[in-house]
Each structure stands twice: as structure tokens, then as C-alpha cells.
């Protein structure tokens, strides 16, 4: 069973935080499968993810999320609910990954990892939620489905790249974060302008 070196650890930590903000349950399921089948050696803090019970629960929730994320307005309600779940879960996953590797300084590194993982999860979640909210202003459902399918593909792809090709993963992650930051700013301005127009046209 392959052990994690420093490069793979950093790549997987970043991938876990980022992916948790997009598809938390799919991320948990994929990590659990990788550990259960011996593709990677999960640190003590993440070994519970390889439990059949945890994987089964994650699979059910990932399927529910897959369906909910394809339905306009339902996707935004799902995102709103998961603001309280994805960010702390992303922080916990990254902390669990790093703390077992860091030895005597595991607790301190775990806190640092949690902050970074939570920040990556928050960025990905904010970009997803704001983009989908903006897409929901369009009457056609195809943009929502297209955006959702892109997320379904991006998460396993980035997790695989973090393990198999970390030096390809890092520039792609930097690009993804830059695009997400731009989307957050653009969608926030768009939604704020939309709210102002609705208020101006609403009857007194």
C-alpha cells in the first residue's frame, strides 16, 4: 500500500479541501474507496472513511446530491443548507490527513491544515453557490445541468491528479481558484444588481 510523501500529501490536502466545497459526499466516498481497496494508505484520522458503513452512507448522500444538484432552485436550497456542512467538513478532512503524518507536531499542523482546508472548501462552495444562484435566474434548465455535470467530473479528476500527477494538479488548482474568485465577484455583482432591479419594479 503506497505511503504518502510530502508532495502527495500537500496535493491531496489541497484537493480534499477544494473538492469538499463542491461535492462533499462524493469526496468522502472516493477517499473511502481508495483506502478500503488499498490504493493509498489512509492516515489514522481518515481510516474511518474506509468503513463499509461510512462508504454506504456517503454513496447514498452522493446520489441524492447528484439528483438535487440538477434541479433549478433545489440546487440553491441544497447549497444554502450545505454552507454549514461543506466548510467544516473540508477543514476536518484536511486536518485528519495532515495531523497523522506530522508526528509530534501533528496537533499544530492539524490546526493549520484545518484553516487551509476550510478556506479552500469555502472558496469552492461560494463559487458554486453563487454561480448556481445566478444560473437559476435563467428560465432554461440546461445551464444548471451543464454546471452540475462539470462539478461531477471535476472532483474525481482533481482528486486523481493530486495522487497520480501532483505537479499537473497544482497549476490546475491555481487556475481553478482564480476562476472561482472571478466568478464569486461577478455573480455577487450580478445578483446584487438583479435584486435592485426587482425592488425598483416591485409595487409599493
From TrEMBL:
Keywords: Membrane, Transmembrane, Transmembrane helix
Transmembrane segments: 45-68, 80-102, 108-130, 142-163, 169-191
Pfam family, one: DUF4126
Start and end residues of each DUF4126 domain: 10-183
The protein, known as: DUF4126 domain-containing protein
Species this protein is from: Pelomonas candidula
Amino acid at each position: 500500500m503506497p505511503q504518502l510523501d510530502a508532495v502527495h500529501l500537500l496535493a491531496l490536502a489541497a484537493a480534499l479541501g477544494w473538492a469538499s466545497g463542491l461535492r462533499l459526499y462524493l469526496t468522502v466516498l472516493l477517499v473511502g474507496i481508495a483506502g478500503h481497496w488499498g490504493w493509498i494508505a489512509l492516515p489514522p484520522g481518515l481510516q474511518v472513511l474506509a468503513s463499509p458503513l461510512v462508504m454506504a452512507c456517503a454513496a447514498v448522500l452522493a446520489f441524492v446530491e447528484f439528483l438535487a444538484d440538477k434541479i433549478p432552485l433545489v440546487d440553491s436550497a441544497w447549497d444554502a443548507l450545505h454552507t454549514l456542512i461543506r466548510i467544516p467538513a473540508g477543514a476536518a478532512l484536511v486536518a485528519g490527513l495532515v495531523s497523522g503524518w506530522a508526528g509530534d507536531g501533528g496537533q499544530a499542523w492539524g490546526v493549520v491544515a484545518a484553516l487551509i482546508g476550510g478556506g479552500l472548501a469555502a472558496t469552492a462552495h461560494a463559487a458554486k453557490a453563487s454561480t448556481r444562484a445566478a444560473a437559476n435566474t435563467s428560465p432554461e434548465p440546461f445551464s444548471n445541468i451543464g454546471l452540475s455535470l462539470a462539478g461531477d467530473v471535476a472532483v474525481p479528476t482533481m482528486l486523481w491528479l493530486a495522487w497520480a500527477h501532483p505537479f499537473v494538479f497544482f497549476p490546475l488548482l491555481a487556475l481553478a481558484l482564480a476562476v472561482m474568485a472571478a466568478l464569486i465577484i461577478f455573480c455577487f455583482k450580478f445578483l446584487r444588481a438583479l435584486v435592485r432591479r426587482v425592488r425598483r419594479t416591485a409595487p409599493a
